[in-house]
Specification:
Rossmann fold, 8 helices, single chain, 16 strands, alpha/beta, binds cytidine-5'-triphosphate, two-stranded parallel sheet
Length: about 290
């Protein structure tokens, strides 16, 4: 029944401690969570520890209230089409080499899973990443370079209600990618001339129709607030999610993130360090409050 379910799925595990602590259970729960399912279990430390047998089913009243809350606001993205750019872009130097960056795509995929679990139809325009999206509401369009990402976005954005620009797009690309592998034996050291890549977020900002929402990210190392506010205006975004590389556990290749969200109306929200899935939920809650 689960395997063919297309609706959001809630799971309330109930089993004895040995079963619960078994690695196969742990892995399955992690997988189910990453597919956008909702796991309902007692929060640790909620009761005196001798009462909380791990694996104990959550109290039925709590399960019912989680479902109540979900149907109140949880499906608030039903009928919406959301496009999310994610991951790095690879800019070709020659047939075997590229310019890229350390983006893992985890933040963008976490937002996709969260949005799909709230009923949205999601398209990820994804640079090369090691992640898979298995939720039936998530479609992945694979691209490699910034130019390919731009083309896919220009095609998909007109039918979207919301676009979230999470990708770490390379700012420059080699001007003349070589057809053949550049050899080590060279008379001079090779010089790679670069050209500027298109700004995908700004291009969509200029295409944006009334009612469409555009969300950007800003990864900063210094002057965080003024840089983020500048990007918010320059790219015609509705809000921007800023993460600072000065915060340990934020940014690239981590499972956690710490963000500040700036809204066009001047509002600003500071969040604690959280898992990327929880950050995704904060981003969507903020988006829905615009
Ligand atoms: N972005 C984009 N296309 C680009 C560059 C950035 O769509 N060519 C998007 C990113 O996905 C992000 C936002 O624009 O949502 C800001 O990206 P960032 O790299 O922080 O900003 P840049 O405009 O590239 O400025 P800089 O690298 O100088 O900080």
């Amino acid at each position: 029944t689960y395997l063919s379910a297309k609706a959001p799925v809630f799971i309330a595990p109930a089993m004895d401690l040995d079963m619960f602590a078994h690695p196969s259970t742990t892995r399955n729960l992690e997988l189910l969570r990453s597919y956008g399912n909702h796991i309902i279990e007692p929060a640790s430390g909620e009761l005196a520890s001798h009462l909380v047998g791990k694996g104990r089913m959550e109290e039925p009243e709590v399960i019912a209230s989680v479902l109540d809350r979900f149907f109140d606001c949880g499906m608030s993205l039903a009928g919406k089409h959301i496009m999310i750019t994610a991951g790095p872009t690879y800019e070709k130097i020659d047939p075997v080499r590229f310019i890229g960056n350390y983006s893992s795509g985890k933040m963008g995929y976490a937002i996709a899973v969260e949005a799909a679990s709230r009923g949205a139809d999601v398209t990820i325009v994804s640079g090369p990443v090691a992640l898979k999206a298995v939720n039936p509401r998530i479609k992945v369009v694979d691209v490699e370079s910034a130019r390919e990402m731009l083309e896919a976005c220009e095609r998909i954005f007109p039918s979207c209600d919301i676009a979230i620009m999470c990708a770490a797009v390379a700012d420059y690309a080699p001007a003349h990618p070589a057809d053949r592998k550049i050899k080590r034996e060279h008379n001079d050291l090779p010089v790679i001339e670069l050209v500027k890549n298109p700004d995908i977020a700004a291009t969509l900002g200029a295409m944006k129709k009334p009612g469409q929402r555009l969300v950007g990210f800003a990864l900063e190392t210094d002057n965080e607030m003024s840089n983020a506010l500048h990007k918010l205006k320059a790219k015609n975004l509705n809000m921007i999610v800023m993460n600072s590389l000065r915060d340990k556990g934020a940014g690239f290749r981590t499972d956690t993130n710490k963000v500040t969200i700036y809204k066009l109306d001047g509002g600003e929200l500071h969040f604690d360090m959280k898992s990327k899935r929880e950050v995704a939920s904060d981003i969507i809650d903020t988006l829905l409050s615009l």
